[in-house]
Design brief:
Jelly Rolls; four-stranded antiparallel beta sheet; 8 strands
Length: 151
């Protein structure tokens, strides 16, 4: 895949949609393209997070460890960004992400990610929106689980 094609993939992601083409090409150039087979783990809950991933193609499952075993909390696909919480908050990975299908991803290191957020405040707004949507979805799932347990 060419640098231009990778830049176009990045443009489709709301987080990067407003970046100028030269910055998108730079991001594509500094990112590492990775391939994962179905069942392969991208990262584990509790690990140190030094990068975020953008899914270029394929799907992944996001799971969390519980006392009764892992629970899949989300399935993400093309254009999703994952792993950013650990690098934004300097906390261990909050979930395990496993390729559900063959998966292609771009790996963006922490330094590059923060440089972009600093240079483009609109990215910070998009990150907040994405995290707020995830929090709301988690709250809905938690409410449903509590209601099911009580009912």
């Amino acid at each position: 895949m060419s640098l231009q094609e990778e830049a176009e993939i990045l443009r489709r992601i709301p987080l990067f949609a407003k970046l100028e083409p030269a910055k998108l090409k730079l991001l594509a150039f500094t990112s590492r393209r990775l391939a994962f087979e179905a069942g392969q783990v991208l990262f584990n809950q509790g690990e140190f997070g030094d990068s975020a991933y953008i899914i270029v193609d394929g799907a992944a499952e996001v799971s969390i460890e519980t006392p009764s075993g892992p629970i899949v909390v989300a399935t993400v696909g093309r254009n999703a960004i994952i792993g950013e919480i650990a690098i934004l908050c300097d906390v261990p990975r909050t979930a395990t992400v496993t390729a559900k299908t063959a998966l292609q991803a771009l790996r963006i290191d922490k330094e590059t990610f923060f440089r972009l957020v600093t240079e483009f405040p609109q990215m910070a707004v998009e990150i907040m929106r994405e995290l707020a949507q995830r929090l709301e979805k988690s709250n809905q799932q938690l409410r449903a689980a509590v209601a099911a347990r009580q009912g």
